[in-house]
Specification:
mainly alpha, 8 helices, 2 domains, single chain
Length: about 270
C-alpha cells in the first residue's frame, strides 16, 4: 500500500522557497564574519605602527600617535648613542690615565669595575710581598686595602689582634680578599691626574644616565604602541556596536601621568 505523496510541482515549489533562504543566511553569516574580522585590522595595525589603525579608520588623530612614535624613537636612539659614546670615553680614560704603568693593553670588563675606579683614587697592590708569603694590601684608602679591612672585620674575632697566618680564621679572610680584590692586571691609580679623574666621574655618570633614560624611552615607546592599539580597538568596536563615532583619547601630563578619555558622538 502506497502512502500519500506530494505532487511533484509542490515539492519543487518548496525547494524553490527553501533554498534561497539558506543561501541568504549563508551570505549574511559570511558578511558578518568579514565585518568582525575587519574590526581587528585597525588595532593590529596600530600595535605594529602606532596611529596607522586610526588613519585606516579615517581618524586624523593617528598622526598624533605617529608623531609621538617618531619623537620617542629618535630620542631613544640619541640616548643610546650618547651612552655608548660616553662609555667608550670613560673606558679609554681608565686605560690611558688610571691604568698607565699597570696595563700594556686595554682590557674591558664589567661596569662595576669602572664604578669602583670612580670611588677610589687607587686600587692598591694585590700582594705586598710578591714571591714570598702572601701579604694583602693594608692601606684602607685604596680599594684592595678596604677589601682586606672588611675581611678582617668579618672573619677575625678581634681585628685589633689578628690571628696567626695559617689559622682557619686567617685563611677565610685571605680567601675573601683574593675573591674580591683587584688583581695585578687591573690595578689603577689616579695619582697626579685630578682633572682626568673629575672628567672620568662626569663622563661615567652621564653615560649611565643616558642608558637609564633610554630604557625609560623604551617604556614610553611600548606604551604608545599599546595605547594606540587599545584606542583603535575601542573605537572600532564601539562604533560598530553603537553605530556612532567613538574614540579613546590620551593626554600626557608629563611627570603627573596621563588622562584617558572616551568620547562618543550623539
Amino acid at each position: 500500500m502506497r502512502g500519500p505523496t506530494v505532487p511533484t510541482a509542490g515539492l519543487m515549489a518548496l525547494m524553490v522557497t527553501f533554498l534561497p533562504g539558506r543561501v541568504a543566511a549563508q551570505v549574511i553569516d559570511s558578511e558578518t564574519a568579514v565585518a568582525r574580522a575587519r574590526l581587528w585590522i585597525p588595532p593590529v595595525a596600530s600595535l605594529v605602527v602606532p596611529g596607522s589603525g586610526q588613519l585606516i579608520a579615517g581618524r586624523d588623530r593617528g598622526l598624533v600617535y605617529m608623531a609621538a612614535e617618531v619623537f620617542l624613537l629618535s630620542h631613544y636612539l640619541q640616548l643610546r648613542h650618547d651612552g655608548r659614546h660616553g662609555s667608550e670615553r670613560y673606558r679609554q680614560l681608565a686605560f690611558t690615565v688610571a691604568q698607565r704603568g699597570f696595563a700594556t693593553s686595554r682590557r674591558d670588563t664589567v661596569f662595576e669595575y669602572y664604578e669602583t675606579l670612580e670611588r677610589f683614587d687607587a686600587s692598591g697592590v694585590f700582594d705586598r710581598n710578591p714571591g714570598g708569603t702572601f701579604m694583602p694590601e693594608n692601606n684602607s684608602n685604596t680599594y684592595n686595602g678596604s677589601v682586606w679591612l672588611l675581611a678582617q672585620r668579618t672573619y677575625f674575632p678581634d681585628p685589633a689582634n689578628p690571628p696567626a697566618p695559617g689559622t682557619e680564621d686567617y685563611n677565610k679572610a685571605i680567601r675573601f680578599y683574593t675573591d674580591h680584590a683587584i688583581g695585578p692586571n687591573f690595578q689603577w691609580s689616579w695619582a697626579g691626574a685630578p682633572l682626568e679623574l673629575e672628567e672620568y666621574r662626569a663622563t661615567i655618570r652621564a653615560s649611565d644616565n643616558a642608558f637609564r633614560n633610554a630604557q625609560n624611552q623604551l617604556g614610553l615607546l611600548l606604551a604608545n604602541h599599546l595605547v594606540s592599539a587599545i584606542d583603535a580597538l575601542i573605537s572600532s568596536r564601539l562604533s560598530a556596536t553603537l553605530r556612532r563615532p567613538a574614540s579613546l583619547q590620551t593626554s600626557y601630563l608629563g611627570e603627573q601621568g596621563a588622562v584617558v578619555s572616551l568620547n562618543i558622538a550623539f
